[in-house]
Amino acid sequence: MANRREKARAWLTGLGEKLRARLLGAPRAQRPSVGVFLGERHVAIAAIHPDGEQLLACDYREATGEAQQGALRELVQAYGLRRCPATLVLPAAEYRLQQVDIPGIPDEELNDALRFRLKDLLSMPLSEAAVAGHRQRSDRRRSEQGLTMAVIARRSRMEALAQTVAGADLRTTAIIAQETAMHDLAAQTPGADSGVALVLLSGGAGGITVSRGSELFLARGHGVSLDALRNETGAIDRLGAEIQRTVDYYDSQLSSQPASRALLLPTELDREALLESLSETARVPIGALDVGQVLELPEGTAPPDTVTQARCILAVAGAMPPSSGATVSLYRPPDRSLRYDAPAAVMGYVAAGALGLAVASLVQGQLLASAEQRRDEVQARQDRLLEAVAELREQIEAREPPEALEEERDRLQAQVEQTRALQAQLERIEARALAGLTEALRALSRRELRPVWLTRFRLGLDGGRFEGYALQADQVMRLIDDLAEAEVFQGVSFQDLAIERTEPDAGAAIPEGGQAYRFTLSTSELPGLMGGGEGGGAGQQGSASEAEGTEAEGAEAERSEEQAEAGAEEQEE
To answer: Are 564 and 453 in contact (CB under 8 A)?
Structure first.
């Protein structure tokens, strides 16, 4: 069961990868790099694995003119290279080289600076010129970064060639000169760090490059074609002399160390015989370079034949990993990223805005409908509550309280009114009136009443009344004098004095066989009890003073009995 699941999962995974490859193609990071060369009578193509180490395709087709696009498309379909990035390598007839010393220019400004420097040397309008710069290294010059190989071509021609490659279902990423392609190939050659010169033989003017590592030191044409080598006597000697002259210039003027060797690229001629003749002319060691020395071949695949290598060597060089910057390309792919101010972007903004408004309107409409529904529900609930309140009020108004409850209410209201009236009267009592009564009592307590004692007294605003006994009648007059001296009794007239001889009460403390005089004394109004208060509260204040005077009666009587006993003792003595 588990094996079936694993097989099914693997089958589905493989099917998904095939569908993705069929519909979308391989991811760009995993696609092979393709090199294309459009010769005078043939088109060549080469493909290298993304790791840059294995040759995947190397083939050509005979074609000229407009037929080259169809032939190139056949090669692309045959090797499954659809939509792969491609670098087009130009033959020498498509451009012109110019060496320029232009120091202090950064890479991103190099091509524009070259266009400005070469504007007087161009045979075409400046707007029609496509210029690329390949920096050259020199160990013996002060301006190391200034020496540049300028490649000049017609812009319209470069765009037409790029369309030819794109019409074959490839993505044109760069268009470079054959010298730049040869340098990229030399950088991958074994022993490149010791200085290597590559020699190219072609139908037109061939070329020679001298590279050390990833740096180009020299690039020039040698002017010896394949036809000349086939038909002209002394052509081999001229080629050997050009090779030696180039290496000597490199050794003496550019590099601090000599070139280690020169390598002849694949050619349709008898290369062994050619190398033997060149070795007799040139002093520098000369050898041959094959594709198998630079790249690995797929397992079980035979190396390409001599003619295929000769016609595809520049395509192979174009597919090699670039060792130079982006300034070496005569073609810049169109920027496919959508600009923010492009018409399509503006239309997209408008469409997105309209869609956003539509979505916002829809959402807002739903929210408004929901809010209106909730509002209606709340309004209906409020109406029901108001109706219930109205019904309750009607029921309350319709109900009549019982008669007993009404009588109890009236009684309680009467009590409340009485309590409020009493509270108002109590609030009108002045504390100074009560203070006046206290002063009167203090006056009575401070006086020596021997042999007189009081049995009853009353003090009020309307006057005072004193009742008591005396052993002698003149003692009563003496009592009146003493009271008149008190502050509270000042200005008071003593009226209605009645004295009669009588037997004392059974409880009186009088010596046996003694006699006493009973007296009653009244006074006029006592203004001292008001304490300066207003006459409005006189009635209530009088009632309060009279009550306090009555409460003090017993204490004063006891004091009077003690004074009577003391008076009796004095009389006996």
So the answer is: yes
Each domain of the chain, given as residue ranges in start order, spans 28-328, 431-572
- 200 dihedral zone (left: phi>0; alpha: psi -120 to 50; beta): beta
Q: Which residue type occupies 344?
A: A
Q: Provide the 8-state DSSP code for 54.
A: B
Distance CA 557, CA 445 (A): 11
Contact in structure between 57 and 45 (CB atoms under 8 Å)? yes
Tokens of 191: 């022993």
Tens-binned pLDDT, residue by residue, of the chain (573 aa): 445 556 555 654 554 555 455 444 445 557 899 999 999 899 999 999 998 889 999 999 999 989 999 999 999 999 999 999 999 999 999 999 988 888 888 888 888 888 888 888 888 888 899 999 998 888 877 655 578 899 999 999 999 999 999 999 999 999 999 999 999 999 999 889 999 999 999 887 789 999 999 999 999 999 899 999 999 889 999 999 999 999 999 999 888 889 999 999 999 999 999 999 999 888 999 999 999 999 998 888 888 999 999 999 999 999 999 887 767 888 988 866 555 566 766 777 788 888 888 888 888 888 888 888 889 999 999 999 999 998 888 888 777 777 888 888 888 999 899 888 888 877 765 554 555 566 667 666 665 555 787 888 888 777 888 888 888 888 888 888 888 887 777 778 888 888 888 875 555 555 555 678 888 989 888 776 654 333 333 333 333 333 333 333 433 444 444 444 444 444 443
Q: Report how far Cα 524 is from the mean position of its chain's Cα atoms.
A: 99
Instruction: Name the CATH architecture for the domain at 28-328.
Output: 2-Layer Sandwich (3.30)
Spatial CB neighbours of 282, under 8 Å, sequence gap ≥ 6 = 240, 241, 243, 244, 247, 262
* Distance between CA atoms of residues 315 and 291, nearest Å: 11
Task: Reduce the secondary structure of 203-248 to three states and give it as a string.
Answer: CCCCEEEEEECCEEEEEEECCCCHHHHHHCCCHHHHHHHHHHHHHH
* CA proximity to 149, closest of 184, 124, 179, 105: 179
Angle at alpha carbon of residue 383, lines to 382 and 387, rounded to 5°: 115
φ, ψ at 485 (rounded to 5°): -75, -20
* Cβ pair 56, 45 in contact under 8 A: no
pTM of the complete model: 0.57
CA 460/CA 437 separation, integer angstroms: 8
Burial class of residue 565 (count of CB atoms within 10 Å of its CB; 0-12, 13-18, 19+): middle
Which residue reads 């002319």 in tokens? 281
For the chain, the residue count is: 573
Backbone phi, psi, residue 234, to 5°: 90, 0
